[in-house]
């Protein structure tokens, strides 16, 4: 598939996907989301890739779903085409880690997309918000649910009801982002983190992602049981033998993803 709204690149074992509609501040149109979904699934299926980074521009990760595309929709259109579920949730099917590297605006669907990634590394210029209320609607790609899990009810209500933005400091303080880096270093840092993950044993990385995600969907005791099953299963891998032998022999492990 030739892409018009994103750029894709492979650096070592990391796939880098850059949202690329600069004139519209990377507004997430349906064609863009279809391309993003396609690129994500391609990276997930590529045995050479161990981690994926999704980023935008210096000014905007993404300023939301495309308002000009949504403007004329009626209820029946939105309902029948299941706007936005199809396409948007492809990212949730990706089993390898996906890091959002966010600079500038991550608003509305842009914030929701970042929250669908596994974690967010923010530039000090990042601004997060769910301003849909200003348009007479509410978040539609999970924002009211995921933001609440990240930052708690009080701050989520504040954001969703007033539409105000959070800066990078507030986002880190409240648990929305995992770390903040200077804007000029964002991509280098995100690629470095992704490269480190990509060098690890892929089965353990994928199971770690699966285990953490399970915590959102189940009780503590069921989640712990689930984790234990995955943990035990990793003792069947060659990489577990290699990882532990390397530690004992005081050398770097060489993982084979087996
Ligand atoms: C379509 C958008 C857009 C968007 C910006 N643009 N955001 N187009 N959809 N979400 C376009 C503008 O129309 C303009 O195009 C160009 O990008 C530059 O934007 P400006 O507004 O001129 O830039 P600036 O003054 O710097 O302001 C930046 C901004 C503002 C504060 C981010 O653009 C803004 O408020 N955007 C909308 C943010 C928002 O409401 N997002 C939520 C969308 S609803 P032209 O052609 O005029 O130059 C949503 C629902 C999700 O996301 C639900 C499910 C997915």
Automatic annotation (TrEMBL):
- Spell out the reaction equation it catalyses: a 4-saturated-(3S)-3-hydroxyacyl-CoA = a (3E)-enoyl-CoA + H2O; a (3S)-3-hydroxyacyl-CoA = a (2E)-enoyl-CoA + H2O
PROSITE patterns under this entry?
ENOYL_COA_HYDRATASE
Q: Which CDD domains match?
A: crotonase-like
Q: What is its EC number?
A: 4.2.1.17
Family named by the database record: Belongs to the enoyl-CoA hydratase/isomerase family.
Q: Which PANTHER family match?
A: ENOYL-COA HYDRATASE, MITOCHONDRIAL, ENOYL-COA HYDRATASE-RELATED
Name-wise, this protein is enoyl-CoA hydratase
Organism name: Thalassobaculum litoreum DSM 18839
